[in-house]
Design goal:
It is built from 16 helices and four strands. The chain has 392 residues and is mainly α. Helix 4 (68-82) crosses helix 14 (299-318), helix 6 runs antiparallel to helix 12 and helix 10 (218-228) packs across helix 12. It is globular.
């Protein structure tokens, strides 16, 4: 900076600020995952004390089985929410694909526009899976195209996808449950490997693979960058539109897989099953600490959120809570969790910003506000952290 007398004024940091307590600083930086985990631990202990039958191995497998279909749906939704988007169609895509698999496998005609009736004969597993997958990919592409290309808010675009998938499910099933299912669905959804339900193993594998994709691949980095700031990501060379479309397709494919698991677990394809999947799947992702603003979250967050939701539901059942009060309890807990997650995100953002400022070398010029008369990088950290949260 040059003064009126021609002198050059250079502002540098007086020296690196000492780090605060290591454990406290680490906890603040990781508040978005430690908070939900602490809530899970407290809730589990509370239910274990109030309901002795809660803390048993059999009930643990029951909780994990109950959230396994949600886990596959939530894995796809995690990608979508990390983009700062929403996908309301996943539950009905899952239901539709489950119906398609059951209809085609049972030998009933599947009526498609333009194409007409498709019949493959009883026991046709491969055509059933292929047709279901193609339909799911098509709806995912449509949702991504509406959002990325036409700029339609994902809430509106996927609401339309929800209606389309729901209508097709009821049309193809005739509103009836279909009990003739392929063995692969019943084995994955209802079988066991030793004492462990296959559906739990399958859901765990899906979460692990999605974790690797998010944390170890370029595509995963692109998802985070796009969700944090789509404009900046685009200027950095990230193919934002392609990433957005790919995420919606991935979400639809995982929804299709969840549909196969669901019919296997229920023992039938039910066109009205979507009502019990969408909100719980979204709630699980949010409970785990994934930001609705995009750019913040992980599969670990989602896994903790799934356990939170499963423990809450199961614990309320163990306490024999009034069936009409259970939705109230879930809703109240979800509102508290959202508020807590926003606070945790602010704490984590502030702590990470503070660490970044403390780690700067002594000779790095500080960017202060000369107009306000305050010089240095520590000016108004709350405002900076708030701005960072807004972008996320």
């Amino acid at each position: 900076m040059t003064t009126a007398t021609g002198e050059t004024l250079t502002t540098t940091r007086p020296g690196p600020a000492p780090h605060r307590g290591g454990v406290r600083s680490w906890a603040e930086r990781n508040a978005t995952i430690l908070g939900p985990f602490a809530a899970l631990l407290i809730m589990s202990v509370a239910f274990g004390l109030l309901a002795p039958s809660f803390a048993t191995a059999g009930n643990l497998w029951n909780v994990l089985s109950q959230v396994s279909v949600l886990a596959v749906l939530a894995a796809g939704l995690t990608f979508v929410l990390l983009l700062g988007q929403i996908d309301l169609g996943v539950a009905n895509i899952a239901v539709m694909t489950g119906v398609v698999v059951a209809v085609v496998y049972s030998g009933k005609p599947l009526t498609l526009p333009v194409v007409g009736d498709l019949t493959f004969g009883t026991g046709s597993v491969v055509p059933a899976v292929v047709i279901a997958l193609v339909l799911a990919v098509a709806l995912g592409l449509l949702a991504g195209w509406l959002t990325a290309r036409l700029g339609i808010p994902s809430f509106i675009g996927t609401l339309g996808i929800l209606q389309v998938a729901q209508g097709l499910a009821f049309f193809w099933s005739g509103g009836n449950n279909i009990y003739d299912l392929p063995p692969i669905a019943t084995k994955l959804g209802g079988g066991f490997t030793g004492p462990v339900p296959n559906i739990v193993i399958t859901a765990a594998l899906v979460l692990v693979v999605c974790h690797v994709v998010l944390s170890r691949t370029r595509f995963g980095r692109y998802v985070y960058m796009t969700g944090a700031n789509a404009r900046a990501a685009e200027l950095s060379g990230v193919p934002v539109r392609r990433v957005t479309i790919s995420v919606f397709v991935l979400s639809a494919v995982l929804a299709a897989f969840a549909g196969v698991l669901s019919v296997g677990r229920l023992g039938s394809a039910q066109a009205n099953a979507g009502d019990e999947l969408l909100l719980p799947a979204i709630a699980a992702v949010v409970l785990g600490g994934t930001s609705l603003f995009g750019g913040v979250g992980s599969m670990l967050n989602t896994s903790v959120g799934l356990l939170l939701y499963g423990v809450l539901n199961n614990g309320l059942d163990q306490l024999n809570m009034n069936i009409y009060l259970k939705p109230f309890a879930r809703g109240a807990f979800l509102l508290l969790a959202i508020a807590f997650n926003i606070v945790a995100l602010r704490i984590a953002s502030r702590a990470r910003l503070q660490q970044a400022l403390d780690d700067q070398p002594d000779d790095v010029p500080a960017r202060g506000s000369y107009a306000s008369g305050v010089v240095g990088p520590h000016r108004d950290l709350d405002a900076v952290a708030g701005a960072e949260l807004g972008h996320q």
